[in-house]
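Appendix B, example 12.
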Amino acid sequence: MIDELDAAQQRVRELEIELALRHARDDASRLQRKLGRIATLATLDDIAVVTHEWALVDGRVAGHVLVVSDDVLSCALERCEVWDATVEVALQAPWIDGEAREPYHSAYANVLSAVTQDLCKAQAAQRATDLEARWTPATAAHRYKRPFAEEGR
């Protein structure tokens, strides 16, 4: 009977911890929605390196655990359908619908656009520096004469 009592008490402790975890995740979800954002998702690291928790419904992504409805989150937690993945990987998985996927797709596209612009600017600056190094004023004056310039002036 003592072993049975210990097992029952252990099960009570496990259930209390699970309930506390559920409440903490629900609170985090509400607070995150109040802030009006999911996560920053502003850099390449945010979308391609940092993993996020995603709620799944029947094996399809329903959204970030901090944004999905309480019912969807509860169902995902009960079925152990919470998945850790980067935004990049999550966008390649099947979603419950396009509306749920859209904010992450837009954030991903915005980050890629900004990174591409930064790379193009850096490339243009490097080309300008390379051209300046090749065509210093002394080099240009030595190789080329100004047209219609009078001799002796």
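The longest strand covers residues 52-57. The CA atoms of residues 113 and 134 lie 32 Å apart.
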